[in-house]
Specification:
Elements (H helix, E strand, L loop, with lengths): L5 E2 L4 E2 L4 E2 L4 E2 L4 E2 L4 E2 L4 E2 L4 E2 L4 E2 L4 E2 L4 E2 L3 E3 L4 E2 L4 E2 L18 E3 L4 E2 L4 E2 L4 E2 L4 E2 L4 E2 L7 E4 L4 E5 L20 E3 L4 E3 L3
GO molecular function: acyltransferase activity
Organism: Thiospirochaeta perfilievii
Family: Belongs to the transferase hexapeptide repeat family.
């Protein structure tokens, strides 16, 4: 029987994983037992997916990323090359803290730039955009453009990935957003 997904011959996929159709797993990747990966995902070279990780549909994980236990990537998330997720706030080599893992959730459509670090326990809002090399230590609002160390908000970003001007009308795709106090949403949605 032919599988509905692709696994490169150099990769390891442990028993008990659920992998959706159309997903591609590239070179030197390890998918731990019981992890869940949705449909039409691209898992890059040298990626590690933890046993309790959940990957939605249409997710793109670039090279050299470890998605640890209790990290949830919702649909259409982009993880840039070498971005980092943590799972314990106060790690020590000589202290076991597996019962202290904190859930990290990346909501639908969010993008994380290359070499960004996402500290455990935060939520990245829908369609938020984390700039390359940033260190995220707090929750991120939907559509927020974040960068720096620590990451701070530097405006808003459209679903299409373009920075929004002050009038909140995307100059690329024409979508108009409304400001609801300290967050934005699509106007008339």
């Amino acid at each position: 029987m032919e599988t509905e997904y692709f696994i490169h011959e150099s990769s390891y996929v442990d028993d008990g994983c659920k992998i959706g159709p159309g997903t591609k797993i590239w070179h030197f990747t390890h998918i731990m037992p019981n992890s869940v990966i949705g449909e039409n995902c691209s898992i890059g070279q040298n990626v590690n997916i933890g046993s309790k990780a959940i990957i939605g549909n249409g997710v793109r994980i670039q090279n050299n990323v470890s998605v640890y236990d209790d990290v949830i990537l919702e649909d259409d998330v982009f993880c840039g090359p070498s971005c980092v997720f943590t799972n314990v706030i106060n790690p020590r080599a000589f202290v076991q803290r597996k019962n202290e893992y904190l859930e990290t959730r990346v909501k639908t459509g969010a993008s994380i730039g290359a070499n960004a670090t996402i500290v455990c326990g935060v939520t990245l809002g829908e369609f938020s955009f984390i700039g390359a090399g940033s260190v995220v230590t707090k929750n991120v609002l939907p559509y927020a453009l974040m960068y720096g160390n620590p990451a701070r908000q530097h405006g808003w970003i459209c679903k299409c990935g373009e920075k929004l001007p002050k009038n909140l009308k995307c100059e690329s795709c024409g979508v108009i957003y409304k400001n609801d106090g300290n967050t934005i949403d699509v106007k008339n949605s």
